[in-house]
Design goal:
single chain, 392 residues, alpha+beta, 7 helices
């Protein structure tokens, strides 16, 4: 999966798995409703100090970003503009545990998410696998995971986030300040997986989207009133140009990523990488900056059938999962119609079963699949926008 899992800690106790799947969107409730809501929301947010955020949000090899010597192209380049995208898209960090309930695995990782226009002005969307993944395997493989704590930082300013040294105690550290989170920190309180993903939470299913409700214990306004929201569209015309965004945070599955030393250091050393990409085209991602790709899209084929996911040539990497795919994106205003989210790596320009890609040591091609928003995604979104964020 493209979520970047970059650090591990031990856990004494964790929340339970979601209820058994029923028809329609499947809910993950992260903050209980009722009298304890405010206390629980504050606890969710307080879990994320600056040290833990750094461990989750930045790459694990410790290298700072390096641009390709041959220059960026439309398959990946830093976003240097302004506009609504700089406020509405942000970093999503998650605390994950093995969903079998019997093992103490506890890790943190990152994705990308976007505020969308909604009735309750509180909906953020990302890829479903950022909160729930299940290949039918438990620890030690950690292939059956569920989120127990999720934080959203719109307009994330990663250039101001200090790194933590290996072995740093993540249970303590400074609070996250406005230099990193200029629009505040927002706890994910409830989330609705698409029906397909709730039933089969892996990439054999292509409905990889989740609609989340967020709240901020330090701000009574809904998130859309603070940062704005992107329009969202369902069942739009396909095989048309797209612009996608994300915070790539890992290099080991970057098609044009660096080589690695014997100690795990990311290096561009003049040699072609594992995919035979020449040194001039290699790049290093660090998870700090917002990147984007633009170009044509086409329907993803897995084996012999068309799917409800689309393909683009986009050389982002783990951490970009859940990033928005826009139709009619205006680079001047930073606004477009959000019609999909980054889902998984693709075998080739025609697609391919992601289970194979996931087994590779590096992305097998410079293409990625994004979930196209259809009826299931609309049902998840409609459920999320119909609720009132918790009681204060």
């Amino acid at each position: 999966m493209l979520a970047a899992a970059v650090a591990s800690v031990t856990a004494a106790s964790l929340a339970g798995a979601p209820a058994a799947h029923a028809a329609g969107p499947g809910e993950i409730r992260l903050v209980p409703l009722g009298a304890d809501y405010s206390t629980a929301l504050q606890s969710q947010v307080d879990y994320w100090n600056l040290n833990r955020l750094s461990a989750a949000a930045l790459n694990s090899d410790g290298a700072e970003a390096v641009a390709p010597a041959a220059g960026w192209d439309d398959s990946a380049r830093p976003w240097a503009g302004g506009g609504k995208i700089t406020r509405t898209t942000g970093k999503l960090v998650m605390r994950m545990r093995n969903a079998d309930g019997a093992t103490p695995t506890d890790s943190v990782g990152s994705c990308t998410a976007t505020v969308v226009q909604s009735r309750n002005k509180s909906v953020v969307v990302t890829a479903a696998h950022c909160l729930r993944i299940n290949w039918g395997l438990n620890a030690p493989l950690d292939a059956n995971q569920i989120a127990t704590n999720v934080l959203f930082i719109p307009g994330f300013r990663g250039e101001n986030l200090p790194r933590v040294a290996p072995g740093t105690d993540l249970n303590s550290g400074p609070a996250i300040g406005s230099d990193v989170a200029p629009y505040g920190v927002w706890g994910v309180t409830r989330a609705w997986l698409t029906e397909g993903w709730a039933a089969q939470a892996n990439f054999l299913n292509n409905n990889d989207m989740v609609a989340m409700v967020v709240d901020n214990p330090a701000d009574d306004r809904p998130v859309e009133e603070v940062v704005g929201g992107q329009p969202i569209g369902f069942n739009v015309a396909r095989k048309t140009p797209r612009t996608n965004f994300g915070y790539p945070a890992a290099n080991y599955k970057s098609y044009s990523g660096p080589n690695f030393s014997s100690t795990g250091e990311a290096v561009i050393n003049g040699s072609p990488n594992a995919n035979n990409v020449p040194a001039a085209q290699q790049r290093i991602y660090d998870g700090r900056g917002l990147m984007f790709s633009q170009g044509p899209s086409w329907i993803n084929r897995e084996w012999w059938w068309d799917t409800n996911s689309d393909l683009m040539k986009t050389q982002l990497s783990p951490g970009a999962s859940g990033g928005p795919w826009f139709k009619d994106f205006d680079q001047g205003t930073g606004e477009g119609v959000l019609v999909g989210v980054t889902s998984h790596l693709a075998q080739s320009s025609t697609g391919g079963l992601d289970a194979i890609a996931e087994a590779q040591g590096r992305a097998p091609s410079p293409y990625m699949a994004g979930t196209n928003f259809g009826d299931q995604e609309k049902a998840a979104f409609d459920t999320a926008q119909s609720v009132t964020p918790g009681v204060r």
